[in-house]
Specification:
Layout lengths: L2 H22 L1 H10 L3 H27 L6 H16 L2
């Protein structure tokens, strides 16, 4: 595995961990934003950030898979975890 590919995998794993932590605190943040009358802005920003995260994972996966096909399960796993997490919050 090249250094570029290992950096991609590490950064996408960190982004996935950040997404999981955010998903864990989502109900609390939702309640706080609702109490502060900023719920619509929060929902809009969270959908945009999640969409950008999925796009980033797919672009990084496609660029690295062209060079090394062995990493396909790792990128598919990260993409599917983030995609499934998006729909079950």
């Amino acid at each position: 595995m090249r250094k570029k590919q290992s950096i991609f995998i590490l950064s996408l794993s960190v982004l996935t961990a950040f997404h999981i932590v955010f998903a864990n605190f989502y109900p609390r943040i939702y309640g706080y934003m609702n109490a502060q009358d900023r719920l619509t802005a929060f929902l809009s920003v969270s959908v945009i950030i999640r969409g950008l995260l999925l796009i980033l994972i797919s672009i990084a996966g496609f660029t690295c898979i062209r060079e090394n096909r062995r990493l396909l399960p790792i990128y598919l796993g990260l993409f599917l975890v983030n995609l499934v997490l998006f729909f079950f919050i």
